[in-house]
Amino acid sequence: MTTQFKRIMLAAATALFTVNAHAIPMNVKDFGATGNGKTDDAPAIRKAIDAAFAPESIDRSIFFPPGTYRIASTIHLTPQHSGLTIDGARSKTGRSWVPRTTTLIWDGDKDGSMFDVRATKALRVDNIVIDGNNKAGALFRLNSIDRHNKDNSWTKKYGEQATTGHNFNKITLMRAHTGILINDDAYICGDCTSFVDVVFSRLEYGIDARSEQNLCFLIMRPDVGYVKTAFRFNGGGFVEAINVNAHHVDTVFDISKCGINSGVYTINGVRPEQGARTKGKRPVTIKASGEVNITVTAMQTTANAIFGKDGDRETPAFILDSSANVLVLGSHITGAVAHVNGSKNDVPAFITFQNCRFRCFSNPLESIKTSGNAGFRLRDCQITRDGLDENYKYKITGREFIGDYYHAP
Fold first, then answer.
1. Domain segments of the chain: what residues?
2. How many CB atoms lie within 10 A of CB 160?
3. Among 122, 294, 141, which Cα is nearest to 205's?
4. Domain 66-407: which CATH class?
5. Of 102, 107, 101, 108, which is closest to residue 28 (Cα–Cα)?
6. What is the pLDDT along the chain (409 residues), one digit of tens a residue?
7. CB 27 within 8 A of CB 48
8. Number of other CB atoms surrounding residue 86 within 10 Å
9. pTM
């Protein structure tokens, strides 16, 4: 081996080592974090984030080894932190309902936010528990920067920019008022964000989005439990939700004030079980109003209505107002079906059921209540007539098939 060749190989090895040294995530413990649940680790986390965005760093990510990290003040992220990945220690099975081995717990001001994100692009959060400790207002507060910000110093420094392109994967959001709060201080796009295998637990709101431009959201395989409202979109949105499991939830989707800019929702697979606040109550699956089109496929409600004399036969699966338009396909529905109330000064509020089955006190001809400018339609649907005997035992009294039934507004 020639001397020149040795020099070339040594230079290559040195370069490779240098790249790899700067292409690994920043371990927060290398910057002073303890993960003991007692020390305030927020300053160390900020140092790790700063190091990830230093000029010589290639990997824009920070890593939390197993432990509980106490956060006593808000972690602020700005456009300068775009591309940040926050990663915790992975559980052995990778299942979303298995507790993570890394926890960030809030111990700051009452109603404060653990992460305040301003027009950051492509934030990614993986394999971690975010615990509000029954004190946090929002675990993640995401806002664009625009003229609606109460503090105009944001636009002076950065100009108008959207918060967009985020990914939340295999995380748990728990014990706070709101898990993900979007655009409560902005208007322009909070968009193109995905939530995959996220657990929402013991919250008032799982996701609370408040802009007319809540666009291109994907919610896949969420597990929602002990949450008042799983997903609220106040102002509209363009959203696809897939395989939604909701238990001990009062309302699964609350969609309101949809306008001309958005209001299209596709829900493929949703299974609500029982309400959060009152034992035995059933959830409202969809509450909607405004210029919104919602398509629901493969919805399956549970039979809370048949539980003896205390069964819930009053809470409807759908509550629709003022021009909301809903199509329900291939679903199995139990209990009260829908309350549809339309405005005389608007297009009808309307719901259509196609290829659906109704049973357990769920006769749609009797339990779809309409008022004002409202209507419904049944196409190729099966109805099981049933009730309780004198001993409150469930019994079936008849079945029928409806090819096409139209209740005009």
1. 66-407
2. 16
3. 141
4. mainly beta
5. 102
6. 555 444 434 444 444 333 344 458 999 999 999 999 999 999 999 999 999 999 988 889 999 999 999 999 999 999 999 999 999 987 665 555 555 689 999 999 999 999 999 999 999 999 999 999 999 999 999 999 999 999 999 999 999 999 999 999 999 999 999 999 999 999 888 889 999 999 999 999 999 999 877 888 999 999 999 999 999 999 888 999 999 999 999 999 999 987 766 789 999 999 998 765 555 688 999 999 999 999 999 999 887 767 777 778 889 999 999 999 999 999 999 989 999 999 988 899 999 999 999 998 899 999 999 999 999 999 999 999 988 888 888 889 999 999 999 999 8
7. yes
8. 28
9. 0.91
CA angle 243, 245, 248 (to 5 degrees): 160
**Residue 183 CB coordination number (10 Å):** 27
Please tell me what DSSP assigns to residue 309: G
| β partners of residue 224 | 200, 246
- Rounded distance, CA 337 to CA 323, Å? 18
